[in-house]
Amino acid sequence: MTVFNPLITALARLLIFPGLLFAVPAAWFFLWVERKSVALMQERVGPPFMQPFYDFVKLLGKSTPPRSGIAGLLMRAWPLIAVSAAAGAVGLLPVLPRSGGFEGDLILLLALLELPSVCIIAAGFSSRSIFGEIGSAREAALSVSYNIVFLLAIVSIAASQHTFRLEALAALPASPLLWLGVVAILACLPAKLHINPFSLPNAEQEIYAGPMTEYAGPELAMWELSHGLEWVAGTGLVATLIAPHVSAVWLAACLFVAISFAIVLLLSALAAATARLTIDTSVRFYWQCTLIFAVLAISSALFMRFRL
Amino acid sequence: MNILTMMGKNLWRGYQTLLFPARPKITSRFRGRVLFDPALCTGCAVCRFRCTSRAIEFKAGKGEFTWSYNPGQCTFCGRCVEGCIEHALKEGRTEHALSQEEACPPVYLLQGELKRSYTVARRPPAPKPAAAPAVPSAGAALPNPVTGGAQ
Lengths: 308, 151
Prior knowledge:
heterodimer; A: mainly alpha; 11 helices; B: alpha+beta; Alpha-Beta Plaits; three-stranded antiparallel β-sheet; two-stranded antiparallel ribbon; 4 helices; 5 strands; disordered C terminus
């Protein structure tokens, strides 16, 4: 029985909470919150509550143009890989107390968080569309710039605690180092989620939909779902880091949802208040401005490590 | 910070989108369909050059010209009216898709269906003003090429 307990816990985390059963409706909800709040800040009505769900169902019912060969196979595979990776990343989040996990699950989480971005880059090049290739090139350049900051910030928090276990990091008390890292992660989230001012990989009206230009039907539905799950995973990661440690399961879940919701509102306000930056300005922002946070965080972490 | 103030006000005020079938009220600065007065037009075609959406076409002929305007292509920027020195163009206030609060907006199925053309006879050129009095001799007016003019 003891052998099955970790397995059952892992399956419950992946499939129920915070996994698929929670994450998929949460993804649609967060997509709606983002669209609605941006619309209200711009004096528009915005979409109805069920719109992301309707979009998903409608896309599932559409047929896609036949694609043969290895390129067609790859184009069908990338969105599925992206959805699986994003769902896995959400499932790994240590939302509930004593939810299990293993040493090194932070590294797996970082890899899973990065996988949708890699899939988007590959999808754009697989589609053989000029707009897809431009979008993919932009995504690759942006990914290189923000990931340095993102990884440095997370690694600094982990290095200060001598662990790569997510549960240990989630139980951390608030400290200046933690907040420094969280600020750096928050600065990277708009680029990771492709919202303004870093929406240039899928710049609407400019390069159509970037890497998604050639996608339609169920494959596009999967990309939309993957994007929503990325919202849940990205905001959820910050929520688990800053949420106070509570022992009650329901309170921990409510705190997770509330903090994630607040971060979605914050990012939406940023998206509504800013315009799209060019690629060189975006890269300069991450390499010159945000890198300072990350370097400060990692140097404090190293200082703490050697002092202890 | 202005943008944040604006967003806050927008959130407080609520949405301003008009739900169908409501239509916006006409304000005093509203621009409608461009009105053309053939009696005043001299056929200078400045409006055609100022039109960025290419809604105005101009064809010059012998003794006459044809001026065409396609409201379906017009962006109602008002640059043509602004540039018409003879005041042959005026901004209409009512004939516009948005302004029709009661009737339906104009519906067209073919490109250029709303286009209207006017063929106008060219007016004879205005008589030249009387010859100006003789100017002083050029040599006296021009500065000395060696010493230069007075500074």
